[in-house]
Amino acid sequence: MTAAFIRRLTLTNFRSYHAAQVTLDRAGPVVLTGANGAGKTNLIEAISLLAPGRGLRRATMEELAFTEGDGGWAISAEVEGMLGLATLGTGIDPPADEDASPTRRCRIDREPVSSATAFADHLRVVWLTPAMDPLFNGPASERRRFLDRLVLAVDAQHASRVSALERSLRSRNRLLEDPRSDPQWLDAVEHETAEVAVAVAAARAETVARLSAALADARSDAPEFPVATIALQGFMEMLLPQHAAVEIEDRYRALLKDNRARDAAAGRTLEGPHLTDLVVTHAAKTMPASNCSTGEQKALLIRLVLAHARLIKDMTGAAPLLLLDEVVAHLDPGRRAALYDALSTLGAQVWMTGADPAAFGDIVSRAQMFTITSGRVEPFAASP
Q1: Class of domain 133-317
Q2: pTM
Q3: Phi, psi (5° rounding) for residue 125?
Q4: By the 8 A CB rule, do 124 and 320 touch?
Q5: 97: how many CB neighbours lie within 10 A of its CB?
Q6: Which CATH fold topology does 1-124+331-384 show?
Q7: What is d(CA 12, CA 23) in angstroms, rounded to the nearest whole number?
Q8: Can you give the pLDDT at residue 384?
Q9: Can you list the residues of the chain whose pLDDT is less than 70?
Q10: What ranges do the domains of the chain cover?
C-alpha cells in the first residue's frame, strides 16, 4: 500500500447534509466544486473528524448537527487503510434531554473504540484551509496548534499529552491563587507538570527535526514553492539536544518553584512549552515568514504541508489523506501546476474544494469530480 484512501463516505444529519454519500474507486485527486456556502468545506470537515482531535474547524459536537435534524449526527467511511479495509464511524446520539452534554462515539468495523485516536492506526489526515493563511502573522498560540497537529499526525498520543499539560498547568494556577495552598501539594503538581511538559516538548522537537530533514531533502522539488526552514523557540526546546530529559525536568521543577510568586501575580505560568513558538523562515531570503508577502506565505505553508505529508508516508508506509480547502484559487498557473505535480508524485488521495471548476482543468482527466449543491453531492457534469 502506498496511500490510504476513502472508498465510500456517508454523512447523516451532519452540518448542511441530511443524508449524502460519496463513492470513490481509487486514490488520487477528488475535486468538490460548487458555489460558496454549498457545503464543500462541510464535507471535508467530516473527513477531518476521522483523525484525532476536533476536526479542521475545532467545532463543538452540537455545532456539527444538521439544523433540521434531531441533534444527532453520524459519519461513516469505508477506508482502504494501513491495516487493510475497515469501516470508521463517529458521531453523537440525539440528546436525551436539553441539559445533557453529547458524548462523541467512535467505532471501527462497528465495534466501539475509546476515541478517534484509534483511527490513526488506519489512516492519517492532513489539511490546509483558508483559516490558516494568517498563521505566520497571528499569535504564537495558532502556530503551536498548527505544530501540534503536525506532531499528532505522526504520533497519535500527542493530543493526550498536550491535554494533560494543560490540565496540570490549570491545577497549578488554581493553587497559586490561594495563598494558603499546601506547598507540598504544589510540589506534587509541579512534579507532574514537569514530566508532562518535557514529554510534550520532546515530541514537538522530534517532529520538527524530522520535518526539517524532509524539507531539506525536498529543496530541489517544486521550485515554484519557496524552501522553508523551521525551528522551535522556547527554553526547554533549546535544552533538549544537549541534556537528558530527567535533567530538564529537574530544571523546570526548580524554575516553577522559584517563580511561584511571579506566576501568582500574573495569574498564569510564565515559562514552559505552553508558550513555545514555531519559527518559519523563507530560506532563500533568510527572511521570517511573517515578513514575506501574502503569496509567499501561502507558498511556504503549502511547502510545509507537502513535506509533512511526505514525512508521514515515509514513517508509516502510506500517504495520508490531504484536505485542501480553496487552496488552488489563489495560486498563479505555475504554482497551481507545480502543486498538482507534487500531489501526483505523493500519490495520496487529495480532496480539493473550489468554486470554479476551471481551476482544476489541469487534473480533470485524472480526478474524481463532484458538484456540491445545497447539501447534495453529485458527479460533476462538464458543460457541453
Answers
A1: mainly alpha
A2: 0.94
A3: -130, 135
A4: yes
A5: 5
A6: Rossmann fold (3.40.50)
A7: 15
A8: 45
A9: 1, 382-384
A10: 1-124+331-384, 133-317
Residue 287 is inside which H or E element, if any?
strand 287-288
C-alpha cell at position 33: 466544486
Helices within the chain (DSSP H only): 40-48, 140-154, 158-177, 183-217, 235-239, 245-258, 260-266, 294-316, 333-346
C-alpha cell at 25: 474507486
Tell the burial category of 80 from Cβ atoms under 10 Å away from its Cβ (0-12, 13-18, 19+): buried
Q: Which residues contact 209 (CB under 8 A, 6 or more apart)?
A: none
Q: Which three cell numbers stand for residue 367?
A: 480526478
Cα(5)–Cα(350) distance, integer angstroms: 9
The DSSP bridge pattern shows strands 111-113 and 105-108 to be antiparallel
Phi, then psi, of 78 in degrees rounded to 5: -90, 120
Residue 91 CB partners (closer than 8 Å, separation 6+): 12, 14, 72, 73, 74, 75, 104, 105
**Structure confidence at residue 382 (pLDDT):** 63
Q: Computed from CA positions of residues 125, 364, 361, 46, in that sequence, does the dihedral angle turn out positive or negative?
A: negative
Distance of CA 223 to the CA centre of its chain: 25
Phi, psi of 93 (to 5 degrees): -80, 155
